[in-house]
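Notebook, student rotation project (T.W.).
Task set for the rotation: take a protein with a known small-molecule partner, predict the structure of the complex, and write up what can be learned from the model alone. Partner molecule chosen: pyridoxal-5'-phosphate. Sequence and SMILES entered below by T.W., checked by me.
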Amino acid sequence: MSPRRFRHLFRPELAGMEPYAAEVQTGRIRLDANESPFSLAPEVRREIMKALSRVPVNRYPDPEARELKAAVASWLNVEPDWILLGNGSDEIISLLAAAVAVPGARALVPTPSFSMYALIAQGHGLAVDAVPLDERFDLRMEEMRAALSRRPRIVLLGYPNNPTGVCYSRTRINEVVDLAPGLVVIDEAYGDYSGKSFLSNGDRHRNVVVLRTVSKIGLAALRLGVMAAHPEIVREIEKIRLPYNINALTQTAARIALSHPRALSAQVKKVIRERDRLMEALEWTRGLSPYPTEANFILFRTVGDADAIHSGLLSRGVVIRNLSRTPALKNCLRVTVGTPAENKAFLEALQLALKEIQ
Ligand SMILES: Cc1ncc(COP(=O)(O)O)c(C=O)c1O
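Predicted structure of the complex:
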């Protein structure tokens, strides 16, 4: 049955969109999705498994996820009424876009950035203004000011940005916040790796919404994203949040995991150490130019054909992200920092793939 048959039933902007293509690769070594390579510490896993066995799965979960919210509040050092929880930060971005989507509303998205920003905004009928980043992947302020004068209802900034790994300059972000007539979303999905945050700026800038997630620190399967914003903003978004968006198993598991912050931060530190070693190895590899990063991944440009290098890695069981077709990222690949053994295997496979294309 042709899908076009039903097109007239749906909003016209959906006709020009494609579903998000999350790559489902079954490589031996997965370094493509910016997950943490480390799962739960054994003692935390045991505690979670015990608690999960007692979860009453015949009952709906707490619609407010109160215990989890308290754990998140103390993890981020934020008052609980500043917090809204989502089924991943993707869901929160979707709620924010839905909440501001009056007819004719615009979203401002620097490019390149996380592809879901534009996709979600379009999905809610917002017109997307994509403003190219400068050569250091920072915000181009002249173009940003011009785009802000078109009065976007929402601005989406990755801090650090994905796929570039760069944190935009704070002064430039502050200027965007001051000029923006709508919400400014500062997405700190990789904030644990940068150690930088806008969380404490909340009082000053009421239009700032900070996003965090547990996906990048070893808990991606749980699907838990966090929004921290002024309680007035939280209250508005709560009106369209579905009541049971955080399931009971996630509420239990995430609450326990977050009550062990030292175990989580020890893993983050391990990843940062590995990131520095991986960066050094890439810098020493001829034909590659890695970009500076504050996240758990490294973007690098290749002199040779990035498609061929990507395939050469795949054929050796190593999956990384090919960004060659993204505007401004021709011949760019992105590798997520893995375990020491995974990074070693990646670097060995990379040497062989590079030799092959010489
Ligand atoms: C910048 C950025 N924000 C948000 C997300 C999605 O996070 P979550 O798993 O919490 O939906 C990602 C995932 O890659 C990301 O790179």
